[in-house]
Design a protein that fits this description.
A hairpin with a 4-residue loop joins strand 7 and strand 8. The chain is 45% helix and 13% strand. The protein is built from 23 helices and 16 strands. The protein folds into three domains: 126 residues, Glucose Oxidase, domain 1; 110 residues, Enzyme I, Chain A, domain 2 (Orthogonal Bundle); 318 residues, Phosphoenolpyruvate-binding domains (TIM Barrel). The strands form two sheets. The protein has an eight-stranded mixed β-sheet. Strands 9-10-11-12-13-14-15-16 form an eight-stranded parallel barrel, surrounded by five helices. The chain is α/β, with parallel strands linked by helices.
Length: 595
């Protein structure tokens, strides 16, 4: 049942949001005020301009001081790896676009510092709101967090610290910043819910690292709840229950016990290899968006990084990162993951993604426009700098380079020419790099799948990006509510495309992996085995779940099951048959609520 702001909260009021961090918590609400600071814009006289500019920079310096204090106060080992997030916010406070735009607004528009900052932040938000990619779009939350801190300091508003929470409680807030999350006492704060936010926000990432259940995007929960209201939060399924009945309480208490037992059971699998009963080894690797997520991948038993998205380096800044900055980030990740390999995907921007220095014309269909490798091959200087940085980083450990959204042979040849040029330069400069650096491509377009037999001899590995491959093959925008139901990973056309890709890789003697969301679903693991995938890369928490299944099945069973699935004509038939077969064959593996 959904409730509005004016509805009396009756017993068993269920609210559905976004599950940001898994787990179940049962307790009382602790309502905190995290509403956005109101910025009052007013016209100023010319003689007031300098005073407003000085007030703005004072707020900037105070914000930096506050964030530095948060950093120095972090002692939790699980959070130390995430101090990079606070550093990101400090970088935003030094961003020339933010500073110059605000100061320019004060001077030129004759508005006060609050109004000028409000206008600047609005421009930033408008850019990020156009981004389709969930991860990149959520970087807007960092701008919001820094902007709100600046506004609070400009108007002299204080804010309650979550470190002051003195009882076990479920925090309810309009929004929580990463700094808020880092100040949480895990002994007191057992979960949190917010009106806004997404699963890939920094706050959500921190919650998962801390093991604190969280549900975000509840829209108006803070206008509905009261302090000390009893509540249950299910962060796995994105559910909040207000005023639970005794029956609901008992039901969720049982689910909580099952979940915690299941999580303890998974601990036993984290350090074991992903090997089937008949000896087939699958490398389970992590998808990583930010350097601080490497530690989480390691604790979950990742055998390397199967997809490192380099886009974060190019966000929230006025100019792209130079070679030295990129090298430092890549080297840090490589050294942390040693002796396992790190696969760095070259810049996947353009279309719906944002690189401030590059002005792209608006495109009617950005998903099929100038993006990914097409963008890099157009912006050769940007591409060259990144290639040099990746090559130099390869001197410090195992690195693989991966080119996104390849659609045919011509692009591979051009990428290899660009890579050869960067290698020649480094040799002339006598800079060390891995001369045998493995080169791979993402298979995420129908054209690449159809000519996979031609592409395979040109590279060292394939990595299938199922998110886009499914979308393009089925002509379905999964973000479009009218057609999202047609987005079917088990569509017979997708299964046949995957078989075509794997067969081409095997015939050419190269490895084939998957780095889309399909890889993290244990229900699909047996058929991916049957298809012949050597590597599966996923978000870190999925690794032990998939590993648990792999270690209790036989690859031969996957081959046999796949033969049966190929006889079915619809996605619904395939899905129903697969679910029934998996529950029948492995009842113990599919009875846990979280799998």
């Amino acid at each position: 049942m959904m409730a509005s702001a004016k509805t009396e909260i009756v017993q068993d009021t269920f609210l559905i949001g976004i599950g940001a961090s898994p787990g179940i918590a049962i307790g009382e609400i602790f309502l905190v005020n995290r509403t956005r600071t109101a910025a009052v814009e007013r016209r100023i006289a010319p003689y007031e301009v300098q005073g407003e500019i000085e007030a703005f920079f004072e707020a900037v310096e105070l914000s930096k001081k506050q964030l530095e204090e948060v950093k120095s106060g972090v002692t939790d080992r699980q959070l130390v790896e995430h101090l990079y997030i606070i550093d990101t916010h400090l970088l935003i406070l030094d961003d020339q676009m933010l500073l110059e735009s605000t100061v320019g607004m004060i001077r030129e528009k004759l508005v006060n510092a609050e109004g000028a900052l409000k206008r600047t932040l609005k421009k930033f938000r408008e850019v990020f709101d156009k981004i389709e990619d969930e991860y990149l779009r959520e970087r807007r939350s960092d701008i919001d967090s820094v902007g709100d801190r600046l506004l609070r300091n400009l108007v002299g508003a204080s804010q309650q610290s979550l470190a002051e929470v003195d009882r076990k409680a479920i925090i309810a807030a309009h929004d929580l910043s990463p700094a808020d999350t880092m100040q949480m006492d895990k002994e007191q704060i057992i979960a949190f819910v917010t009106d806004v936010g997404g699963r890939t926000s920094h706050t959500a990432i921190l919650a998962r690292s801390l093991g604190i259940p969280a549900v975000v995007g509840l829209e108006s929960v803070t206008t509905m709840v009261r302090d000390r209201m009893p509540a249950i939060i299910d962060g796995t399924h994105g559910t909040l229950v207000l005023n639970p009945s005794p029956e609901t309480f008992r039901e969720y208490l049982k689910k909580k016990q099952q979940y915690e037992y299941f999580e303890k059971e998974l601990l036993a699998y984290r350090e074991l290899p992903g090997q089937t009963l008949d000896g087939f080894h699958v490398s389970l690797r992590g998808n990583v968006e930010l350097p601080e997520e490497v530690a989480l991948a390691q604790t979950q038993g990742a055998e390397g990084i199967g997809l490192f998205r380099s886009e974060f380096l190019f966000l929230n800044r006025s100019v792209p990162p130079d070679e030295e900055e990129q090298l430092a980030v890549y080297r840090g990740i490589i050294e942390k993951m040693a002796p396992h390999p790190v696969t760095i995907r070259t810049l996947d921007v353009g279309g719906d993604k944002f690189v401030p220095e590059i002005n792209l014309a608006d495109e009617a269909n950005p998903a099929m426009g100038l993006r990914a490798i097409r963008f890099s091959l157009k912006e050769r200087t940007l591409f060259h700098v990144q290639l040099r940085a990746i090559l130099r980083a390869s001197a410090f450990g195992q690195v693989r380079i991966m080119f996104p959204m390849i659609s045919g042979m011509a692009e591979i040849h051009e990428c290899k020419r660009c890579l050869a040029r960067a290698m020649d330069e480094l040799r002339q400069e006598q800079v060390l790099f891995d001369e045998e650096l493995p080169v791979g491509i993402m298979i995420e377009t129908p054209s690449a799948a159809l000519v996979a037999d031609l592409l395979a001899p040109e590279v060292d590995f394939f990595s299938v990006g199922t998110n886009d491959l499914i979308q393009y093959c089925l002509a379905v925008d999964r973000g479009n509510e009218h057609v999202a139901y047609l987005y079917e990973p088990l569509h017979p056309a997708i299964l046949r495309a995957l078989q075509m890709i794997c067969t081409a890789a095997k015939n050419a003697g190269i490895k084939v992996g998957m780095c889309g969301e399909m890889a993290a679903e244990p229900l699909y693991s047996l058929i991916l085995l049957g298809l012949g995938f050597d590597e599966l890369s996923m978000n870190a928490p999925g690794i032990p779940r998939v590993k648990r299944l792999l270690r209790q099945v036989r690859r031969e069973d996957g081959v046999q099951l796949l033969g049966q699935l190929f006889k079915l004509g619809t996605a619904q038939e395939v899905s129903a048959f697969l679910e029934a077969q998996m529950k029948q064959r492995y009842p113990d593996l599919f009875k846990a609520p979280s799998i």
